[in-house]
## 1
Amino acid sequence: MTKKRLSLALALTSILVAVSVVLLVIFLPINLGTNTPGPKPTTTEKPAPVVNELDRIFDPSKVSQTFIELPQKSIDKLAGYNNESYVAAKFRMVYDGTETQSVNVGIRIKGTTTHSTLNNLYYRPSFKIKFDWAKGYETQTLFGKRSLTFNAFVQDNSRLHETYAYKAYRAMDVPAPRTGYTTISFEGATKPNKPSRGLYLVLESEDDEFFADHFKDVTQHVYENNHDVTDFDVAKVGGDVETNTYFRVKAGWKATPNRDDLRAFTKAVNTDGKTFWDNLDVVADRERLIALFATDNFTGNWDTYSGPLRNNFTFRSNVAGKFTFVPWGTDQSFGENLFNDPGARVRFPGYRLPVKTHDDFFITVDKPWTAYPGSYVFAYSAGLRDMAKMENYQILRGKIFVKCLRYAPCATLYFQDLQKLSAWAKSEKLSDQMRATSQLVNQYLTPYQKAEGVRTANWTDTQIKRVDAAIKRNCALDKSNVITTCKAANG
C-alpha cells in the first residue's frame, strides 16, 4: 500500500444525518371575509459549534496523556549527545477524553543549556515531535500543526512560568504560543530506562503555521540568536549565510538567501533619541515591541533580549523588512532563581550558594541595567567574594530597550503598557489562577517544586506592587490615575 496523507481525525467521529424537510402544499379557499392563516415557517436547528481540537490540547486547565513508542535504533540515537536529528517514533495522545490515532512521527531532543540525553541522571530531556518528518509524510499534521514541543520544566520548578508568561504576552497582543499540560509515557515492546516521564508542558511550536496564524502578511525571515549576550551590532550581523556565530535564520532562507533585512534593522537601531524612535517605527512593529518589553519586565523574564543576558529571542520580518519580536523560552520568569535550587551544585561545581535565596532581589523594571540570579556567578567570576556586593552586581540590558528607557516618548509608552499589564493581572486575579493551576499539577511534583509554585504566585502579587511603585516614581498621572507622560531614565 502506498503511503498517503494520514488524517489524524478523532477515533470516534460524529455522523451528521441529513434531515429532509417535506414541504406541504396548502390550498387556500378563496374567501375574502375570512382570515385564513398562512403556512408556519419550518423550525431549523442551529448547527453544532465547530470544536477546535487544538484548543482542547492547549488547555492548561486539564492534563492530557502522550504516549510514544520507540524502536531500539531510536533509543540508541537519543541516548547519545548527538541526538538533534529526528528519529522514528509512534505518537498518540489522549486529551479531554479523546484519543488520536497512533501515527508515525519524528522525535528529537531539544534544548541548549538544558540539552540532555534520553536517560540523563539529572534532567529529563525536552522533546520536539514532527509530523511531516520524512518522505511520504510531507503533508501529515496534527489538526494543522506540523510539530509540537514538549518541555520538561528543567528550569521551572513551579510548572507555572511558561503558561502564565505566554498568557501575559497574548493579553498585550504580542504573538505567543499556546500551552497545555501532558504526561509522557514510553510504551511498546522496547522502552527506555524510565518509561514514565511525568508531567510536561505541551507547547505550540513557533513554526510556519504559527506565523501564518498570527500574521496576515508574508514572512520573509525568522531569526533567532545563536549566542547569549548578543546584541544588534553591525559586526555581528555577518555575511549572507544561513547561520553565523550570533544569529541564524530559522525560516525563509531558501526563498531569500540574504540578510539585507537584518542589516537595515541593525543600522536603524544604532541611532539615538528621536532618530532612533522614528527609525524603530519603520523597521519594526514598534507598539508590539514595546509591549513585549513591558511584558518581559512585568513577568521578570530575564532570559530574553531586554534582560541582562540578551538571550533567547526570536524575531520575524515581513517582505518589507519590518520586524516583530515573539517570546520564546520563558521558563525563567516570575522570580525563578534556578541558581539557588538543589541542582545548582551540579550545574556549577564549586559555586557557593548565596546567603539570600529565592526570588525577590534581582529584577528592576525601570532601569537600563539589572541583576538576575546568575549575577552571583558573574560577580564570583569577576573576583568578588563579598556576598553583599555580589547581590548588587548589575548588567546592562539589550540596547534597544535601553534606548527606549532613555527617550521619554518611548519610556512613556513602555510604562503605559506596564500599567495595562498591572491592571490586567489584578482584574484576572492572576496569582489566584496560578494557585489553582498548582492544585492541578501538584500531584506530579516534589515538596520543593510545590513550594516554588507558592513562591511564584506570591512573587506575582509582589511584582504588581513593584510595578505600580515604579510607575509613580517615573510618570505623571491624571486624576484617574492614568499615565500621561514619563521621564527618560538616566544611567
## 2
Amino acid sequence: MAAEELTVQSHIQHHLSNAKMCSVEGEIAFNKACENAGFMTLHVDTLAWSIGLGIIFLMIFRAAAKKATTDVPGKLQCFIEMIIELVSNNVRDTFHGKSKLIAPLALTIFVWIFLMNLMDLIPVDFLPAFAGWVGSTMFGMDSHDVYMKIVPTTDINMTAGLAIGVFLLMIGYSIGMKGVVGFIKELTLQPFSSNNIFAQILLIPFNLLLELIGLFAKPFSLALRLFGNLYAGEMIFILIGVIGLWQLPLHFPWAVFHILVITLQAFVFMMLSIVYLSMASSDSH
C-alpha cells in the first residue's frame, strides 16, 4: 500500500515538475542537478511552449491578414474578426485614455494566454510520455528524469512575468501622463489630505504605505489569479489521469467545463490589464 501511494505521489510530482537548465560550477546542468542552483534556473519547457505558442499566434493572425478580403470572408477571417471586435469593444468601453498601444496589447494578452491555457486540454500523460521516450531512446536518459510541463500558465514564473510586464507599463503610463513629480504626488498626497501643510507632511508616510500596497497588489493579483486557477485545473486532470482507463468518463466533462475556465481566465487577465492601465493613464488626481 505504501509503495502504491509512493508511486502515485511520484507520478503527480513528476507531472508538476518543470524541465530545468542551469549552470553548476561553470557547467550546464539539468533538472535534479538544478535543485540548489538558485534564481538563475531556466524552465526550459515553459520558455519553449510560451515562445512557440506566441509564434503560432503571430503566424495565424498574419495568415488571416494576408488573405483578408472585403468580399465574402473565409471562416478564419470571420473568427479573427470576432476576436478583434470583442477586444476592441472592451478596450473602447474600459480604457479612457488615448493610446494606440492598448488595443494590440489587449489582443496579444488575450490570445496568447488563451493558447497557453489551451494546452491544459491535451491529455496530461501524452507529451510528457513522448518526451520521456525521446530522452531515453535518443539520449540514453532515464525517462523518470525527463520532465515536460506543457502548460506555461501553471508556472508562477510565467504568470509573474506577464504581470510584471503590465506593471511596468502601468508605471510608464503614470509617469507619462502625470510626470515624475505628479506620480510622486499621487503616491504621497492621497487618499488622506489636509489643507494644513504640516498635517499633510505627517500624512505622507501613511499615504505612501497605502498607495504602494494598492500599487503592488495589482501585479500580484494578476499573477496569482491566473496561476492558481490553471494550476488547480491541471492538478485535477492529473488526479483524474491516475485512475487509468476509468478516467475517460470523468475527463470529458471536466475538459468541457475547463474550456470555459481557460477562456474566462484569459479574458479576466486582459480586462484587469486594461483597467489598471486606464487607471494609470487617468489624470483625475
## 3
Amino acid sequence: MVSVHTVIDRRDGAQQAAEGVARSDAQATNSAANRKLYKSRVPIYPREQDGLYRKIKWAMMAVTLSIYYLVPWVRWDRGPHAPNQAVLVDFAHERFYFFFIEIWPQEVYYITGLLILSAVSLFLINALFGRLWCGYSCPQTVWTDLFIWVETKIEGDRNARMKLAKAPWTAGKIAKRVSKHTIWLLFAVATGGAWVFYYNDAPTLLHELVTGTASVGNYAFIGILTFTTYTLGGMMREQVCTYMCPWPRIQAAMTDKEALCVTYAYDRGEPRGPHRKGDPWEGRGSCIDCNQCVAACPMGIDIRDGAQLECINCGLCIDACDDVMAKIGQPPRLIAYDTDANIHRRLVGKKPRFRFVRPRTILYAAVLGIVGAIMVYAFATRKSVEMDVLRDRNPNYVTLADGAVRNGYTIKLLNQANMPRDFQLSVGGLKTREVKVIGLESDAMPAVLHVDADKVRTVRVLVTVDKADLGTGGSRDINFTVTEPVHQESRQIESVFITGGAK
C-alpha cells in the first residue's frame, strides 16, 4: 500500500501540473484574439440519482412546497372583528397576522427581530453543517429540483437530454419541448398565484381571479412571479446560485475547516485512475475516475477539486459515488459529509473527530439565545393598548381672563384587541381646574373612551390649571393614563404643561 507521504506528493504534483495547464489555458483565453467579455452558459444535464440524500431532498421538497401552497388556506378564528386566515399580510388594514400573533405597523421591531434570528440561525447552521440551507431548503433549489424532475420525465435522463439538445428540430422534439415548458409555466403560475394569497383572503381572491374581478395589482404580481419562477428555476438554474446569490460569498466567512461539508476524501481516493475487475488495489486510491459525481451534480462541478463557491452541499455526489463504490467492492463514503480538518488528521495518523462546539458556534448560539430571549420577553409583556400624546404647539398655551392657563393635547388611543373596549382616561401630575374631552358631554374624570376592535380613536383634550396652581417656571410635568378595567391593562404617557412663565 502506498504511504501517506507518497499520496500527498503525487497529489501535489498532479495539482501543480493542473495549475500549469490552467495558466496556459488562461493565457490563451486572455489573448487579444480570444478575449471575450461574456461567456455563454454551458447547459448542465444532471443525471437522475437515487440514494439517501436524494430521498431527503424529495422529502424536503414535499414539505416546503406543501407549506408554501397550503398555508394561505389554513383558518384561525380571531373573533368577529378580525380576518380568519392564519397567515395574512393585510396591507389594507396595516396588519400582519400569524396564527395567534398580530403585528401592527409600530411593532416593526418584531419583524426586525425575526430577520435577525433568521440570519444568525443561517450563520450557525453554516458553521456546523455548511450550506445545508442551500442544498435542501432554499426556494431556488426546491423549484430547480422540481423543474429538472419535469424535464427528466419528459425528455429522459442525462444522456437522452444531451442527445435531444443536439438533435435537429423535429415534431417529436418540438412536442417534448412544448410539453416541458407548458408544465414549467403551470408551476410558475401556481407559484405566483400562491404568493398573492398571503396578502388577501385566499378563498375570496381565488374566486375573483377565476371570475376576472381581481385587482390589476394581483394579476400583475402573479405575472411577475410567474416570469421570475420560470426564468430562475427553469432557464437560469445554477447561474442564480453562482452569480446572483450573495450567500456563496458570505458563507466563506461563516465556515472553517471544522464545518461538516460535502468533502472528497483525497487521502483515500488518490491516486485515481481507471480500474478493471480483478486488478489489485495496491498503490492506488479508491477513485476510479468515473466522473459519476460530476454527472449527478446539479451545479456541474467536480467535488474532487475541493471546496468551491458553486457547491450547494446537496449530497447527490455522495449517492452517486456510493453506488460506484458498491459495484467495485470498495467501502462507501469516498465522498461524504466530513470536515477538511478530519482529512488532515487522517493523513498524519490521528483519529477523526467532529467539533461542533467551537468559538464561532458558541458566539452564534449565544447571539441566537439573547435575541430569542428578548423577543420572547417583548411578546410576553406586550400590551394590547397603546397611547400617543401630542401637545399643541400653535399656540403653546392660552391664558384665560382670570389668569388660568389652558393647554391642548391630541391623544391617540389604539385598541389592539379583537373586541371593542372602554378605556378610562385620567390626568395626573398637577392640580387641574378642568379637563375637557372634546366630543364628550360629561367633564367628569376619569373620562370613558370607547374604542372599536383593532381601531385607533383620536380625541382632543383641553387641560386648564388655575393661576394659583401653576407654580414657578415655564412648564410643569403632566401625565395621561388610560386604564382598561376588565383586563387590568393600563398605559401612562408623560408630557409637559406650558405655564407661560407664570410666577
## 4
Amino acid sequence: MMELRVENIGSLAAVTPETWNRVVGDRYPFLRHEFLFALETCGCATTETGWEPDHLIVYRDDQPVTVLPRYAKYHSRGEYVFDWSWADAWERAGGDYYPKSLSSIPFTPAAGPRLAVVDSVDRREAIAVLSPVLRDSGLQSWHLLFAEAGEVADWKAAFGAPLMERQAVQFAWRDEGYVDFEGFLARMSSRKRKEIRRERRKLAEQGFVFERLSGEAIDDEALAQFYRCYCMTYLERGQRPYLNLEFFTRLRDTLADAMLLVRASIEGRAVAAALCFEGRETLYGRYWGSEVAADFLHFETCYYQGIEHCLARGLAYFDPGTQGEHKLTRGFAPVISRSLHYLEHAGFRDAVGDFCREERAYVQAYFAQCRSRLPFKDVTPQPGDPR
C-alpha cells in the first residue's frame, strides 16, 4: 500500500466538489465544497479580506483520503476564538503575529469535524503526515478552531509538538426522546414550561405567523428578505456584514437541501428570518435578523422553530449559535467548545499555555454553574460536552 502524501491545493477551485465531498460526506454542511467554495468565489473569504485559502488534501494511491481546510490569516476577525491579546503581546515584543495559519470554517463558530478522513484511514495516521506541513509552514503559529472532542484528543496525541487547548462554553439542545414540543416542555419545571407557553402565545396574539422553508421553497424573494434582516443585525452594532447576498444565493443554488429558512410574518408581510443548516444529525442555527421589535420574536424564530424542526426530522442535536445565557432557560444545555493552538516560539508558547490553563479552570466552573440553572426537573451533572 502506498504511503500517504500531502498536497497543498490553495483554493478549492483546484478540486472538484466530487473530489472534496467524497472525503467530507454529508454529516457537517460547513465542511462541504459548496459552502467553502461559495465563501471564496463570492469574495467573503479571500486574500483581499484577509483569508488566503491554503487547503490541504492527503492522498493514498492517488485517491483523496483526508482534507483539512486552512487559511493564511492576516487578522483575527470572523473567528470567534479571540486571540487579540496574544497578537498584541507578540507584536509588542517585536514579533509578527500575522499572518497566522488557521484551520477553521470562516465566520462559523459551530463545532464539528475540521479534519475529514475516510473510513479506511486512521485519523492519527493522517495527523502525523499533516503535522510537519502545519509546523513548517513558515508562519509562527497554527490554530484549529471549534473541533470536536475526539478530534482534539487525536491531534494532541499525534501532532508531535505541544498543542495548547482553549475551551469555551456554548449552548446546545439534545433530543432526550421528547417526541414532540409538548413532550419537551413536559420535562421542564412547571414555571419554566408556563413561561415558554406564554412567550409563544403572546406572539400568536399579536398575529405573528411562522414558516419553515427549505430547498426550492427558498425563492429569491424569501432570500432577499432574509438578507435584509441579516444586515440589520450587523447595522444595529455599527458593523458591516461579513457575508453578501451573492454568497447566500450561491448556497441556495448549490446546497439548498441543507438549508432551513424560518420566516416570521405579520399581516402577510415577512418581518424576521433565521437561516439554519442541517447536517446528518444536527441542525445549526447560523444567521438571524428582524425588521421589527417584538418581545420573544427572537426566541421563537431562532430556538422554538428549530426545536420543532429537529423533532419533526428526527435530528438529535440543535446548535443555535454562540453565546447567550438566555438559552439555558429554554432548554439549551452548556457544552464545551474546543480549539487547539501551536506556537513556534517556546517562550511565547509557555506564556500562552499558562493563560490557557487558567482560562480552562474558569470555563469549567462556569460550565458547572450553567448546568445548575437548566429548567428541567432532573438534571444529571455532566463533566463536559454531552456529544
